[in-house]
């Protein structure tokens, strides 16, 4: 079967609006993941054995299981426990939890390379721990780990395509619908791949510009 250039081009008008769904889900999930990763990072520094042990088990579970399984657990498992979620809600929560685990690992690595001087000075002045985190540690840490955070966002964008399996109508699901009606799966899927690639490329370029701006300010 020859490649149909017309079918390839016709797919984009439907795929581009669907990409907004992927982007919206990714941004919401990233926001929740950043909050979750920050909370986990702070809790891991408390030194409470039971708490850090439980977080360690959670990290091992999330990192050791496919994200697709986690999506299914949220979508099919939580209703069994009495918590009904829409496909988008289940998908956002699953991706956010998965990403928060990777973000807390990124933050832990960033903390290990930070200059302890400002923190030690704040402690010596009697500044409260909460203020040290919000005014001293986190602002520096977020800037320091900006590049891996951008990479994590692009990973999340790619992960949103998995939500097609729980009926979320995003780029991949839309491409499948196009393929089912046109009987041209190659053209539809290739167009979907290009749309997602362009979306991640734009995010990466934006991240580099932000990183360059912060580097210029520090300089």
Task: Give the topology.
Blueprint: H1 5-44, H2 49-64, H3 67-80, H4 87-112, H5 117-124, H6 129-144, H7 146-160, H8 171-182, H9 185-218
Describe the structure.
This protein is an all-alpha fold. It has one domain: Orthogonal Bundle (MetI-like fold), CATH 1.10.3720.10. The protein has nine helices and no strands. The protein has helices at residues 5-44, 49-64, 67-80, 87-112, 117-124, 129-144, 146-160, 171-182, 185-218. It is flat and about 70 Å long. The model has no long low-confidence stretch (mean pLDDT 94). Pfam families: BPD_transp_1. Keywords: Amino-acid transport, Cell membrane, Membrane, Transmembrane, Transmembrane helix, Transport. GO terms for molecular function: transmembrane transporter activity. The chain crosses the membrane at residues 20-43, 50-76, 189-207.
> Quick one: CATH class?
Mainly Alpha
What is the third-level CATH name, the topology? MetI-like fold
Anisotropy-based shape: flat
Number of helices: 9
Helix content class: over 70%
Give the tally of structural domains: 1
Keywords: Amino-acid transport, Cell membrane, Membrane, Transmembrane, Transmembrane helix, Transport
InterPro entries: AA_ABC_transptr_permease_3TM (IPR010065), ArtM/GltK/GlnP/TcyL/YhdX-like (IPR043429), MetI-like (IPR000515), MetI-like_sf (IPR035906)
Domain ABC transmembrane type-1: 19-207
Subcellular location: Cell inner membrane; Cell membrane
């Amino acid at each position: 079967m020859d490649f149909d250039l017309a079918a390839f081009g016709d797919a984009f008008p439907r795929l581009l609006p669907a990409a907004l769904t992927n982007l919206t889900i990714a941004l919401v999930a990233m926001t929740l993941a950043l909050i979750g990763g920050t909370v986990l990072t702070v809790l891991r520094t408390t030194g409470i054995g039971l708490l850090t042990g439980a977080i360690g088990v959670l990290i091992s579970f999330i990192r050791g299981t496919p994200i697709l399984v986690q999506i299914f657990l949220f979508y099919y498992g939580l209703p069994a426990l009495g918590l009904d979620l829409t496909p988008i809600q289940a998908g956002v929560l699953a991706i956010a939890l998965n990403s928060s685990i990777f973000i807390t690992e990124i933050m832990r690595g960033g903390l290990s390379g930070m200059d302890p001087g400002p923190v030690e000075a704040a402690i010596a002045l009697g500044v409260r721990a909460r203020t040290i985190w919000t005014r001293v540690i986190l602002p520096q840490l977020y800037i320091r780990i900006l590049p891996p955070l951008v990479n994590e966002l692009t990973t999340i964008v790619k992960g949103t395509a998995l939500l097609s399996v729980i009926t979320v109508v995003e780029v991949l699901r839309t491409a499948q619908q196009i393929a089912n009606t046109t009987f041209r799966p190659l053209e539809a899927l290739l167009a979907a791949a290009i749309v997602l690639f362009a979306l991640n490329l734009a995010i990466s370029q934006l991240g580099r510009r932000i990183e360059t701006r912060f580097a210029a300010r520090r300089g």
